[in-house]
Amino acid sequence: MVHDLKYALYLLLCFFGAAFILWILGRTLKRSDAPLKLVVKWGGTAAVLGVFIPTAFACGPFGPLILVPMAFILSVMWTPHIAELVSRPLTSLFDGGNEPPEPKPYYSAAMSKRQRGHFLEAVVAVREQLAKFPNDFEGVLLLAGIQAENLMDLPGAEITLNHFCAAPADAPRQVVAALTQLADWHLKLAQDSDSARAALQRIIERFPETEFALRAEQRLAHLGGVEKYLLAQHDRQNLAVPEGVNNIGLLDSTEFLKPQEIEPGKLAAAYVKHLETHPHDAEVREKLAMIYGKDFQRLDLATMELAQLINEPRHAPKQVAHWLNLLANFQVELGADVATVRATLEKIVERFPDLPAAEVVRRRLARLNYEFKGKEGSANVKLGVYEQNIGLKYGSPGKR
Fold first, then answer.
1. Containing structural domain, residue 163
2. Last residue of a domain, one of 205, 226, 247
3. Stretch 286-308: mean pLDDT, rounded?
4. For residue range 207-225, what is the model confidence (pLDDT) as tens digits?
């Protein structure tokens, strides 16, 4: 009984051993660049072993001498393969080994045709790749770019991008990039601000309460050019081009030739009106805070505007750190105490400890007391004739 069990176990081990050897041989054959040559070597190895080993046993004490030519023949046959097997882990670090390359689309042919002016052929080349890799963002954007910029087919480009955006996408940044590019083309190629506005509005609707929506809202605020909008609020009359000054080189002074800057009060009023329509325009709100702090010397109004920017969670950490630094600068210049400034700066370290700005703030906190030397006893600055509460016209910060 025990003998039969041992015999069965021996057969089982032989079966699994043979199966493993066959699996190794099959895997090796599959990966080989010359499978026929490898099969021939296997056959030659079997023949050599079949001839020399029985002969070695038959020769008795002279058997080891018979094995020497066998070892030489086998070393000639298999040394290149053994060397490759040993060096493969090292070379795989540089060439990727035997792993097949990841399939990906190639658009070099399409871009070459585009550069040569063969736009229709380029479209065909891109579509061939997209047939293999549907909704590949690089290909979709390249195809839309050829349609819009080279074939002057903006409606076709819009269809291409809309088809990509309508498909389920795991990368919202690509959808946002596609819609933003579409808005750019509407402005640049068709001068169609309404269509550009619609494309940006789709970002806000699709990704509400995200950084993408915030950027789209800010882009909408600048769609027509903020400075053009601000100037139009005060200078609606037609501009006449005056005659040039004669003998300008002989004048004692040319100060009167410099363009007149917009008065801070009028500019602040225009910014306030703009923010009523576009409350998320960070650039204009920062400019308004600068006017309140530098021109009006109103720390309370500057703080109100900067606080709205700082407390918006969708802004990038780098921007928030910049606004906290700006607020601290105003507090130092406009009479806040050391504790208030320190609390403002410490928010940067607490909220963004890994930013480079945090390290700068740590050094500034260490010498903060020196910043206040010379500030004590400074004279109060007269506000001038501007309306001091201009920033309060459009309600409390919570309503904006």
1. 108-226
2. 226
3. 94
4. 998 999 999 998 888 886 5
